[in-house]
Amino acid sequence: MTKHIGIVLFTDVEELDAIGPWEVLSAWTQRFPEDGYAITCLSRSGGLVRCAKGLVIQAQHSFDDAPPLDVLIYPGGQGTRPQLHDDGQLDWLRRQRAAVPLMTSVCTGSLVYAAAGLLAHRPATTHWASLDLLAELDPTIDVRRDERFVDDGDTITASGVSAGIDMALHLIVRLAGPDRARHIRRYIQYEPAPPV
Questions:
Q1: Residue 17 pLDDT exceeds 90
Q2: Residue 69 within a domain
Q3: What are the DJ-1/PfpI domain coordinates in residue numbering (predicted)?
Q4: How far apart are CA 120 and CA 130, in angstroms?
Q5: Which CATH number fits the domain that encloses residue 63?
Q6: Is the dihedral of CA 104, 69, 52, 163 positive or negative?
Q7: Which contacts (CB < 8 Å, 24+ apart) does range 28-32 have?
Q8: What pLDDT score was predicted for residue 196?
Q9: Does a structural domain hold residue 129?
Q10: Distance between CA 48 and CA 90 in Å, rounded?
Q11: Is residue 93 part of a domain?
Q12: pLDDT beyond 90 at 194
């Protein structure tokens, strides 16, 4: 039976927060279908979504018609800010927490998790510029300021933007083993060597 990984999209989502994990995980699921995973994107109403820097991408599913998820990935971006007070979005996330075995976030996606109460008394991280806000949203969170991502069992939070790539490779380690992750890292030629 196919297991489903879903990336949540919303207006003003940060492009790389969503596309980075998509690249990693779609490369894995397409090259190794025998591992039994598929990846999809979903948004509240489905359809086209305009990202933070103007890219328009398609959510294959709405919240209502998405398949049951085994992993949920919640990216960040400026579009997360109105969600911190959006009862409908927060209630939907709480329902997902009750049903989805592994909840992950990239960048300021963790702020929405915090606002929904999903990170209480847990270690977590976010984009460096939002670490204080994460602590303000829920003072019980053990804010990890220097970690690229934080794996706390059924919840993984990644720091800013490009950290979603590292988190997605870590997901492959968890779901299919380190050899698969090394293969995909090589396939996408992810060998960070900053020029400055």
A1: yes
A2: yes
A3: 4-172
A4: 17
A5: 3.40.50.880
A6: positive
A7: 28/172, 28/176, 28/180, 28/184, 29/5, 31/183, 31/184, 31/187, 32/176, 32/180
A8: 87
A9: no
A10: 22
A11: yes
A12: no
Q: At what angle do helices 163-176 and 15-31 cross, to 10 degrees?
A: 30
Q: Which residue range is the domain that position 70 belongs to?
A: 3-108+161-187
What pLDDT, in 10s, does the model give residues 43-92? 999 999 999 999 999 999 999 999 999 999 999 999 999 999 999 999 99
pLDDT at 193: 87
For residues 111-137, average pLDDT: 98
User: Stretch 97-105: mean pLDDT, rounded?
Assistant: 98
Query: Per DSSP, what are the bridge partners of residue 62?
Result: 43
Residue 149 amino acid letter: F
Cα separation, 147 vs 155, in Å, equals: 15
Distance CA 68, CA 53 (A): 30
> What is the b/e burial string over 27-66, where b = at least 16 CB atoms within 10 angstroms of the residue's CB?
bbbeeeeeeebbbbbbbbebeebebbeeeebebbbebeeb
Q: How many domains does the chain have?
A: 1
Amino acid (one-letter) located at 26: S
Is 19 a domain residue? yes
Active site residues: 107
Of the candidates 142, 81, 161, the one whose C-alpha atom is nearest the C-alpha of residue 115 is 81
User: How far, rounded to the nearest angstrom, does the alpha carbon of residue 130 sit from its chain's CA centroid?
Assistant: 16
- What pLDDT is attached to residue 11? 98
Nearest Cα neighbor of 176 from 66, 67, 27 is: 27
How does DSSP classify residue 64?
T
Q: Percent of the chain scored above 70 by pLDDT?
A: 100
